[in-house]
Design a protein that fits this description.
- By secondary structure, this protein is an alpha/beta fold.
- It is built from five helices and five strands, in the order E-H-E-H-E-H-E-H-E-H.
- It has helices at about 15-30, 40-50, 65-70, 85-95, 115-120; strands at about 10-15, 30-35, 60, 75-80, 105.
- Strands 3-2-1-4-5 form a five-stranded parallel sheet.
- It is globular, with a radius of gyration of 14 Å.
């Protein structure tokens, strides 16, 4: 298990302008970033930008939540950069089977706080 005070790997779910920018900033600070986005082209463009910036090997794309989660340390750290609405619900539903007690989700999305709280309730360990 990684030192709890140091994050070495994280997942960026949503790699558009905001999520892509955050992924590059994390990579610049030595964090390995596992990418997930419905658009493979968006992830490929982000990886190409990282390569131009000398950040090769710090970003890697994943098309499914199982592979994404296996690429992370424990506790797993996720950053959401998603559009408002039901997308966040779909992501939480897809991730849920792969989550363990202590995993961390940082919701950096443009979302109504009440929706975020509702999703938190779905993730409380039973």
């Amino acid at each position: 298990m990684a030192d709890e005070s140091e994050i070495r790997k994280l997942a960026m779910i949503g790699c558009g302008s905001m999520g892509g920018g955050m992924a590059l900033l994390f990579a610049e600070h030595g964090i390995s970033v596992s990418l997930n986005d419905p658009s493979e082209d968006t992830m490929d463009e982000l990886i190409a930008t990282a390569n131009k910036d000398g950040l090769q090997d710090r970003l890697e794309k994943h098309g499914d939540y199982g592979g994404l989660c296996k690429s992370l340390d424990s506790p797993k750290v996720f950053v959401f950069s998603l559009p408002h609405g039901t997308v966040g619900d779909s992501v939480v539903e897809g991730l849920h089977p792969h989550l363990e007690n202590g995993d961390i989700i940082i919701d950096a999305s443009n979302e109504n706080w009440q929706n975020t709280q509702r999703r938190q309730g779905k993730l409380v360990p039973q």
